[in-house]
């Protein structure tokens, strides 16, 4: 696996995270760590509880259940840079700013700001203890941790509507290709004897947000150049849209030729999960192609 902080043709000297726990834990060392941990829990208990509840209950935010442990594992695997040095002043400024955001978010009852302040506090602690270089070294786990925070409802709603109509148009085109009589009215698809409503849950936003996060993770773990990672990230968008259009087509196909009951309930949800796995496989395959092209380009640059 490519180290998350590595770039093409360079290596960063690191030391394992377990060395932190190998050192003797005296009272003088334990006391500030315990105080900081207790303070963190007291300040962020409410937003942490609401965030984990949304991860568990909201299908649109469920990918956070995967991203959070993966980000911790990636940070552990990446280790600590040997050339880092804590920046007490800058780290303290970031932490104070995060506390202000937490207070403002609490006053306004705005969840995203409160949750973002958790992430910003973690960045501030890393800068305080090990400096900005360690933040850059941990860019991948920190980015995944940020992507695990659900976007505000105003943003998701504004994204869902155009995705609904785009998915409806593409799904209708596939239905027409199969010679099924169909009529599209906004996000309502009429086929003989049946009517399909492309709801927000079927807009593709759920798979799009998850695939973008997985695209960042795949790019960070497999690829070593910024253009390659950006390309994989951009490819996640058409993959999510195309796979969701296929889901709409399959739903109409099964309802028209087999049974109307196949367009709802367990079968409909199972179909969504199966196609998301297909989308993940497609994205991984595209990333593999980008990786091969990236390696060819690096070898060509080395010979030039």
The DSSP helix count reads 11
Oligomer: single chain
Q: Strand order across the biggest sheet? A: 3-4-5
Question: What distance separates the N and C termini?
Answer: 27 Å
Give the key terms:
304 residues; mainly alpha; 3-stranded antiparallel sheet; 11 helices
3D architecture notes:
This protein has helices at residues 19-22, 27-57, 64-78, 88-108, 111-130, 132-137, 139-147, 153-177, 205-222, 226-257, 265-303, and strands at 14-15, 80-81, 183-185, 188-191, 194-197. With 304 residues, it is mainly alpha-helical. It has 2 domains: 14-147, no CATH class; 153-303, no CATH class.
Characterize this entry briefly.
It is built from eleven helices and five strands. The chain has helices at residues 19-22, 27-57, 64-78, 88-108, 111-130, 132-137, 139-147, 153-177, 205-222, 226-257, 265-303; strands at residues 14-15, 80-81, 183-185, 188-191, 194-197.
Write the layout of secondary structure elements.
Elements: E1 14-15, H1 19-22, H2 27-57, H3 64-78, E2 80-81, H4 88-108, H5 111-130, H6 132-137, H7 139-147, H8 153-177, E3 183-185, E4 188-191, E5 194-197, H9 205-222, H10 226-257, H11 265-303
Antiparallel strand pairs: 1-2, 3-4, 4-5
Helix pairs in contact: 2-5, 3-7, 4-5, 7-9, 8-10, 9-10, 9-11, 10-11
């Amino acid at each position: 696996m490519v180290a998350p902080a590595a770039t093409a043709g360079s290596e960063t000297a690191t030391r394992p995270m377990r060395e932190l726990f190998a050192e003797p834990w005296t009272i003088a060392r334990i006391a500030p760590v315990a105080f900081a941990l207790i303070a963190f829990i007291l300040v962020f208990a409410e937003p942490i509880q609401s965030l984990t509840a949304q991860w568990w209950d909201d299908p649109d935010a469920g990918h956070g259940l995967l991203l959070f442990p993966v980000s911790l594992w990636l940070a552990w695997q990446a280790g600590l840079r040997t050339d880092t040095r804590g920046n007490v002043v800058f780290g303290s400024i970031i932490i104070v700013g995060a506390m202000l955001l937490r207070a403002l978010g609490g006053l306004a009852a705005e969840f995203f700001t409160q949750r973002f302040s958790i992430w910003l506090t973690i960045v501030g602690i890393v800068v305080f203890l090990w400096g900005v270089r360690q933040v850059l070294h941990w860019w991948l786990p920190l980015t995944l941790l940020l992507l695990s925070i659900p976007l505000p409802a105003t943003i998701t709603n504004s994204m869902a509507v155009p995705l609904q109509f785009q998915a409806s148009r593409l799904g209708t085109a596939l239905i027409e290709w199969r010679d099924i009589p169909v009529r599209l009215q906004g996000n309502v698809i009429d086929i003989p004897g049946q009517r399909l409503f492309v709801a927000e849950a079927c807009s593709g936003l759920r798979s799009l947000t998850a695939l973008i996060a997985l695209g960042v993770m795949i790019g960070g773990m497999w690829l070593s150049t910024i253009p390659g990672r950006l390309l994989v990230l951009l490819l996640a968008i058409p993959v999510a849209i195309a796979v969701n259009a296929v889901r709409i087509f399959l739903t109409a196909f099964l309802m028209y030729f087999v049974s109307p009951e196949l367009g709802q309930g367990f079968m409909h949800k199972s179909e969504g999960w199966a196609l998301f796995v297909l989308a993940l496989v497609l994205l991984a395959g595209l990333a593999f192609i980008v990786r091969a092209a990236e390696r060819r380009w690096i070898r060509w640059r080395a010979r030039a």
